[in-house]
Amino acid sequence: MLPHLILFEWASLTSWGFFISLIFVLFSFVLSLFFEFFTMERVNFYVDGFNFYYGLRRLKATDSDWQKFYWLDFVKLFQHFIGENQFLQKVCYFTAPPLKIGKSNRQSLLLKANILLNGNRFEVIKGQFYEKELICPVCKSTYTKPEEKRTDVNISVRMMEDCSLNNVDTLVLVCADSDLIPPLLSIKKYHPEKKIRVYFPPDNFSGALMDFMRACKGNVVRLENNKVKFFNSIMPDIVAKDGKKYPIPTKWKVA
Question: What is the DSSP letter of 10?
Answer without folding.
Answer: H
